[in-house]
Design goal:
CATH topology: Lipocalin
GO molecular function: lipid binding
Oligomer: single chain
Protein name: Outer membrane lipoprotein Blc
Radius of gyration: 18 Å
CATH architecture: Beta Barrel
Strand content: 35-45%
Strand order of the largest sheet: 1-2-3-4-5-6-7-8
Structural class: alpha+beta
Organism: Stenotrophomonas maltophilia (Pseudomonas maltophilia)
Subcellular location: Cell outer membrane
Mean pLDDT: 89
Number of helices: 3
Helix content: 10-25%
Low-confidence stretches: 5-19
Shape: globular
Largest sheet: 8 strands, antiparallel, barrel
Main location: membrane
Length: about 180
């Protein structure tokens, strides 16, 4: 009988970080023209489709005539080869900071499950860095226009993600972190 209160206390304690987390929210404004171009991945939560990536991870976004966004993700694998994945993103109507992305052929784009959430959670006013995730907190990327990031900014973005309930224990650092800001 004395075990029940202790078990209940443990369950409440374990659940408290989830309960206390802010909701995952996308930015209110996203100018796709300014967001387009090359981004360097600084860090990410492990995901199966990036297992082979060991460095030089980039994402390139370009505007298409149909209003969608071309996505080209690339990285170097353990053998030094460049691995490329081509996809497309579409804006979510009424939610500027929310996109959906897919990496399957166009003829499969009608299948709802091929589209994944891509939310811009924090964004530099000058579009020099971004924090990207999704509402289930399974995916998270810290991106920069430069192939490195200063430590203060990196820690600030990690703190923002933790505030939204992301578990950063398995976060993988994929690019250099500087101890001083860039000039």
């Amino acid at each position: 009988m004395h075990l029940r209160p202790a078990l209940l206390a443990c369950l409440l304690l374990a659940a408290s970080p989830v309960i206390a987390a802010e909701p995952v929210r996308a930015v209110d404004t996203l100018d796709i023209d300014r967001y387009a171009g090359q981004w360097h991945e600084i860090a990410h939560l492990p995901v199966s489709f990036q297992k082979q990536c060991v460095g030089e991870i980039t994402a390139n976004y370009g505007l298409r005539r149909d209003g969608r966004i071309s996505v080209t993700n690339a990285c170097r694998n353990g053998d030094g080869e460049r691995v490329v994945a081509e996809g497309v993103a579409r804006p979510v109507a009424g939610h500027p900071g929310q996109l959906q992305v897919r990496f399957v052929p166009d003829w499969l784009s009608w299948v709802p499950l091929v589209w994944a959430d891509y939310w811009v959670l924090a964004l530099d006013p000058d579009y020099q860095w971004a924090l990207v995730g999704e509402p289930d907190r399974k995916y998270l990327w810290i991106l920069s226009r430069l192939p490195e990031m200063d430590r203060a900014r990196f820690e600030q973005l990690k703190e923002k993600a933790e505030t939204m309930g992301y578990d950063l224990g398995p976060l993988r650092l994929m690019a250099p972190i500087r101890d001083t800001p860039a000039d």
